Amino acid sequence: MLPEPKNYYKIRKEITYSKENSKIRVELQEMDMITNIKGYELYSVITDPTSKRIVMTIKDNIILGKVIVVEQRETYIQHYQIISHDKDINIIIKKCEGCNKNEDTYFKQKNKCVIMQNNDKVFFVENRKCNIKNLGNNAIILEDIQLSNIEQLLYGNEIFSYEPMAYIADDCRIEENNVKDIISLYLDNSLDREKLIIIKEKLKLIKNNIIYIDGSVKNNGTKECESIFGAIFYNENFIEIAEFYSTYENWISSNKAETLALLIALIVQPENGEVKIFTDSIIVFNNFMLKKNIII
Asked: What is d(CA 134, CA 140) in angstroms, rounded to the nearest whole number?
């Protein structure tokens, strides 16, 4: 028997007993939750098979619907058609009255359009705080969720499932590219961070950009109270480049929401760029000018 190579024991011990590697090993063994999509967690339908929540999957394109039943291998979904735009801040869906996607006859007695999909490809949409309201006429609104975002999640997860070696962790890319800007340094891994990075890359191609910002408080005085803020980006010809919306739930105020919208507009600006920012908040304007040591 050949002797173990030098340092082999140390390497083996590190892999076997290291707390960090133990954590990684647990994550790899956990099949109900996918954590490779920029810090966003996709919960499989098998984590709560009796739930009737809204689910999403891919079959040629994005499918949304309600769970009818989860069987041993397949999930049967009541199909809901998407009637909102992919960039709208909310998703609006309506029960499908029948289309070419229908794949079932047994459940069709009560549900006009039923889609069958493998359990491991069906995920809940509401894996974070999400307000869902019935609009009547079998229509539902999913508030503060953009269709384009969940499309990126599902397609990204689909690609990663087939080509896991093509995925490069965020920290590796940041180190290789030596990216040390505010977004990468101070914002946690999330869809919001990725959207801001994409917006910043787009703005690098534009010398002058124009931004409209706004922020407000919704559901004030209720336990669902939260602040929403956002910005819409245009080029100098007022052609829309991108838009960004987000929410927060702590220390809520309209002034803070307006200020966060301003900060978002500023942190995505490229070096040596010129920008015009429009706001309807005099407080945000005055505070910004004070920071520049200009007396109004």
From this structure: 5
CB distance 204 to 271 below 8 Å? no
Which residues on neighbouring strands pair with residue 116, listed in sequence order? 76
Splitting the chain (296 residues) into consecutive groups of 10 residues, what average pLDDT does each group show?
A: 54 53 41 45 84 86 89 90 83 86 64 86 72 77 79 75 56 47 73 83 86 87 81 91 84 84 89 87 84 58
Selection from 72, 71, 73, 91 nearest residue 81 by Cα: 91
DSSP state of 140: E
Quick one: pLDDT at residue 35?
Answer: 42
Tokens of 37: 């999509």
Q: Delimit the CATH 3.30.420.10 region(s) of the chain.
A: 170-291
Between the two ends of the chain, the Cα-to-Cα distance in Å is: 83
The CATH superfamily holding the domain 170-291 is: Ribonuclease H-like superfamily/Ribonuclease H (3.30.420.10)
Q: Are 180 and 232 in contact (CB under 8 A)?
A: no
107 touches 82 (CB < 8 A): no
How big is the CA angle at 14 (ends 9 and 20), to the nearest 5 degrees?
175
pLDDT given at position 247:
83
Alpha-carbon span 145 to 148, nearest angstrom: 9
